[in-house]
Specification:
heterotrimer, A mainly alpha (297), B alpha/beta (387), C mainly alpha (326), A: 297 residues, mainly alpha, ABC transporter involved in vitamin B12 uptake, BtuC, two-stranded antiparallel ribbon, 2 strands, 2% strand, B: 387 residues, alpha/beta, Rossmann fold, 2 domains, five-stranded parallel sheet, four-stranded parallel sheet, 14 strands, 44% helix
């Protein structure tokens, strides 16, 4: 294998992994924008999406598109229910309280999944075969193309949603200034519900498309959440474009680090870069400095 | 209800409860006192695929033994505690079993790290511990009260290297998971390679939660390795198998005995075909010759377990089977005395378990040799003995 | 230190001293030892979070640095545990200082992320530097503390040793809170810009309290290492940092008393839940959820306020905390 195709292979891997991080980061952003909190149960939405999809398509033999729709719908409902039951009843909670509530939520989701599916590892057949595509000596799986394609569609839909629909614009208004949005007649509490449902949906999509590559078990969520959080912060919290970009940067950093320096230290290399970027530019690559200063947290 | 009647019902209820307690207590005293054995497994958390079959196995044995009249008339009571695979939790769990439940012996923990953490406690409390974890540090040097049932890592390495020497493989790449199991294997693989004329041309690792190992494998592909050894116990090892196929690598893939779970084969799909690995005979019991001394024990365990839990047996549950049966054997012979149980186990000879035929001695608390391993391979999605 | 705190301290000391005489069972004692060890970390974390308003998701790393430094120095270099404990404090303080200078310029979630990243890096180093740390398999045979001829190897002795250190730390921390420094810290929590204008050197105080919390965690780490006598990286990962954060939040962030009680609750609770076997994870999760929903100020402070609702004007700190709500 020539050095050129080796590097190309590293990049392909980085892009595959990075797109996963980016998708998780998108989910973080949506909830952050409307509530100012980091939802530490985001990784569990991803896990639930993957696990439900696996059950529907392998146990109940549903066709892929139908399974996809039902899984996303179910996880969306779980996200909404979580908001109604755990976030909504609070009158005036602090940010830390909300974060701990999402921790409790993630423990519950994890425990529930453990009872439903047991502790085994499951796999989902790839959407269109597992025959690798060879490009200049490097290989890429068709599933990666699916991931990139679906991610593109999600980003496009999100952009359209936030720019052209009433609900999307209202959510954006909440992100800029909650009090002002409230005064303008936007029901902020409903927007919080929307944001949980939406980010659960995005998490579910991420879980479904990565399951054929990464395998799924009840315990998968946490690490994905940590990586996704990294991407969200590196990109500048609240910026969707930043989240995707940062996801790719972290993924590529990791795979180049593993390829040229040490596979044991690959995560550390990416984290050191993250720290340096934060220290130089404290609100992330594409984050807005003034806006982040105005945020209470 | 008036206040008076409320009080009256309360009093009546209290009397009834008290009577029930007295009756049940006297019934309980009439039967012989149960023999209490403790078990500490990683039932939840990151190593739950180890603890789950172990817990299921000991619960099944407990039921069977009690249905058959117990041990010399005493019912067997196995008290199972969860360590979550965490050392701190393992320490408190073992202390609970010793100090509160007053168990006669402890089986487990599932992981090497948790076992090493609880060794000082059982040594001091003088309670026999039979670990279900692999690391050799558990029994080397020999600790008076500590035994283990899984085969030795070094024996697995020897079996792989012997096979390689026979087939003219001298340059290998190793890729190991960063868990206690993978780390121990990596150390043994590197230590013993020179003895078998083997050079390690690549030494890569991956985290237990990684989702893609193509980078490490690409590096291996760039070397002159004639074979890959993937040493890990976590589910992520199946991804290595898939990724090798994705990269179009055709050199043979060897795995460790940590691959001994049919779920990993299912997770890796077609890519798992042809993998070679050393493991206990439990996995390939159907393809064992009938005159194999373990055949009877293995088929019985497999049949019972699969009928009860509706899932495939794994070698990990087998380690718990061996450990608990050793304790039962000792209890039958010497009764409820920790020191006598320890002495008995230390002198067990020719005990046919799922992991092999155990011969313990004062210098050897593993009881197994490299013969406990059989080289297996994957054929049509099943484990079969390699011929 | 106010009269109320002095009284509480006295009561706690008496309870701590008498408790082992009533429940002299090594199992219960060892749980209480862990409560003590973790309390040291959460007292520090509560100073950092509740009083100075800074969040840390990397506290497990300081705990780990203390434990590993102690463990390595005593096993590989045959130093006495006492010397190792002191060197560990300096090592951890140094690392905290270096990481604190740039990190504490960050705010909110960015600071959380930076501390998380730092914690993960330390975790990876524990896993990779096999020569010293034993890698993922960890290492054992760490010696016990020795007090003259007195080996601190039984749960009974170690219990008193740990809790005396906790009481000393608690006294020092209460003194700190009611000093000039404490007032400065609270002013940072109330509003950093305002504090700065009022002439409080916010940057320096923030670093100081960050280093102090790291030192507490380091002492806890050394105490852990010489009690369990075996270390592996798994104990010091991200999930433990989250667990510590949860203990502080459940206890009620704006009080070191809350921190201790939250730690006690969340360390003892899982032991009670053992009877539920696998279901414990669900019960633990729901308990946590209910506490935070019903008593968002924290279990004990919330309970306290609930009982004395109306009679007691909410404490100054609580008010401060309420103002900083989103």
């Amino acid at each position: 294998m020539s050095l050129g195709s080796q590097i190309l292979q590293y990049l392909f891997t980085g892009i595959t992994v990075g797109s996963i991080y980016g998708m998780v980061a998108l989910g973080f952003n949506i909830i952050y924008n409307s509530t100012g909190i980091i939802n530490l149960a985001q990784g569990e939405f991803v896990m639930l999406g993957g696990m439900i999809m696996i059950s529907l398509t392998t146990t109940f033999k549903l066709p892929l598109p139908l399974g996809f729709l039902i899984s996303v719908l179910l996880v969306t409902m779980i996200g909404a229910a979580f908001e109604r039951l755990a976030i909504h009843p609070l009158k005036n909670p602090s940010v830390i309280t909300l974060i701990i509530i999402t921790v409790a939520g993630s423990i519950l989701f994890k425990g529930g999944a453990m009872f439903l599916w047991g502790k085994g590892t499951f796999t989902l057949p790839a959407f269109s075969g597992e025959k690798p595509i060879f490009i200049l000596g490097a290989t890429i799986l068709p599933q990666t193309l699916w991931i990139l394609g679906i991610m593109g569609i999600v980003v496009l839909l999100l952009t359209l949603f936030f720019s052209f629909t009433q609900a999307g614009k209202a959510m954006k208004a909440c992100a800029v200034n909650r009090e002002a949005a409230n005064l303008m007649g936007i029901n902020v509490k409903v927007m919080v519900l929307f944001s949980f449902a939406l980010s659960a949906a995005i998490g579910a999509v991420a879980g479904i498309i990565i399951a054929p590559i990464s395998l799924m078990d009840y315990n998968r969520g946490t690490m994905l959440a940590v990586k996704g959080f990294c991407a969200a912060v590196l990109g500048g919290l609240g910026s969707n474009l930043g989240a995707i970009t940062a996801g790719f940067i972290i993924g590529i950093m990791e795979s180049l680090g593993a390829g040229f320096i040490s596979s044991g230290y690959k995560d550390a290399i990416a984290l050191v870069v993250l720290l340096v970027v934060l220290f130089v530019k404290p609100s992330g690559i594409l984050g807005n400095k003034e806006r982040s200063q105005l945020k209470k947290f | 209800m008036t206040r008076k009647t409320k009080v009256a019902t309360g009093v009546v209820a209290a009397i009834v409860v008290a009577l029930l307690l007295v009756v049940s207590f006297s019934v309980w005293c009439a039967a012989l006192k149960p023999y209490k054995v403790g078990a500490v497994f990683a039932i939840t958390g990151g190593a739950s695929w180890l603890g789950e079959p172990e817990r299921n196995t000991v619960k099944m044995i407990e039921e069977n033994v009690n249905a058959a009249g117990g041990i010399n008339g005493h019912p067997l009571q196995v008290i199972v505690e969860d360590t979550v695979g965490d050392e701190t939790k393992a320490v408190t769990a073992v202390k609970k079993l010793i100090e509160r439940d007053k168990v006669l012996a402890i089986i487990g923990p599932s992981r090497s790290g948790t076992t090493l953490a609880v060794i000082p406690i059982v040594q001091r409390a003088k309670v026999p511990l039979i670990s279900c974890a692999a690391a050799e540090a558990i029994v080397i040097p020999v600790k008076q009260w500590v035994f283990k049932t899984p085969q030795k890592d070094s024996d697995a390495v020897i079996r792989i290297y012997e096979y390689m020497r026979e087939h003219g493989i001298s340059k290998v790449a190793i890729i190991t998971g960063t868990t206690g199991f993978g780390d121990q294997g990596r150390k043994q693989l590197k230590k013993m390679a020179p003895d078998y004329g083997i050079t390690i041309v690549a030494d890569e690792t991956y985290g237990p939660k990684d989702t893609d190992m193509t980078v490490q494998l690409t590096k291996i592909k760039g070397t002159k390795a004639q074979a890959v050894i993937n040493w890990s116990i976590v589910p992520a090892q199946a991804i290595v198998v898939k990724n090798m196929r994705q990269l179009g690598m055709t050199i043979p893939l060897f795995q460790s005995h940590g691959f001994g779970n049919i779920k990993y084969v299912q997770a890796a799909g077609k890519a798992a075909e042809g993998i070679i690995f050393p493991a206990g005979r439990l996995l390939a019991v159907d393809t064992l010759p009938n005159d194999n001394p373990q055949k009877e024990v293995l088929s019985r365990y497999k049949k019972e377990y699969e009928a009860k839990y509706g899932e495939s047996v794994s070698t990990f549950g087998g380690h718990a089977w061996d450990a608990l049966h050793l304790v039962i054997l000792a209890l039958r012979a010497v009764g409820p005395d920790r020191a006598k149980i320890r002495n008995f186990i230390e002198n067990v000879k020719g005990f046919v378990g799922t992991g092999g035929i155990f011969n313990y001695s004062p210098d050897d608390h593993t009881g197994l040799t490299k013969e406990a391993f059989e080289m297996l391979t994957v054929k049509n999605g099943k484990f079969v003995v390699l011929k | 230190m106010g009269k109320k705190n002095l009284l509480s301290l006295l009561i706690l000391s008496i309870v701590v001293m008498i408790l082992p005489l009533i429940i002299n069972n090594p199992y219960y004692l060892s749980i209480l030892i862990f409560v003590g060890i973790y309390s040291l970390i959460t007292i520090g974390l509560s100073l950092l979070m509740g009083y100075a308003g800074q969040i840390s998701l990397g506290q497990a790393a300081f705990f780990g640095l203390g434990a590993y430094t102690s463990g390595i120095l005593t096993t590989k270099f045959a130093l006495s545990p006492w010397i190792a404990l002191i060197i560990a404090i300096f090592v951890t303080a140094g690392v905290a200082f270096l990481i604190g200078i740039p990190a504490l310029k960050l705010k909110g979630h960015y600071l959380a992320m930076a501390t998380l990243a730092f914690g993960q890096i330390i975790f990876i180093i524990f896993n990779q530097e096999i020569t010293y740390t034993g890698g993922p398999s960890g290492f054992g045979q760490i010696p016990y503390f020795k007090l003259g001829k007195f080996m601190l190897d039984s749960d009974f002795r170690y219990y008193y040793f740990v809790w005396i250190i906790v009481l000393i730390t608690l006294t020092l921390s209460l003194n700190l809170i009611h000093s000039r420094v404490g007032r400065a810290l609270r002013s940072i929590h109330g509003g950093e810009i305002t504090a700065n204008i009022m002439g409080v050197n916010t940057a320096r105080y923030k670093i100081d309290v960050f280093v102090l919390s790291a030192v507490y965690a380091s002492i806890a780490g050394s105490l852990y290492a010489h009690f369990v006598t075996f270390l592996s990286p798994g104990t010091f990962g991200f999930s433990f940092s989250i667990a510590l954060l949860t203990m502080v939040a459940v206890g009620g962030m704006a009080s070191v008393w809350g921190a201790i009680m939250g730690t006690a609750l969340l360390t003892i609770l899982p032991e009670f839940l053992r009877i539920f076997h696998d279901y414990d994870i669900l019960i633990y999760g729901s308990t946590l959820l209910f506490i935070m929903i019903l008593l968002p100020e924290g279990f004990f402070i919330g309970l306290f306020n609930l009982i004395r609702k109306g009679n007691l004007p909410q404490s100054h700190l609580l008010k401060k905390l309420l103002e900083t709500r989103r």
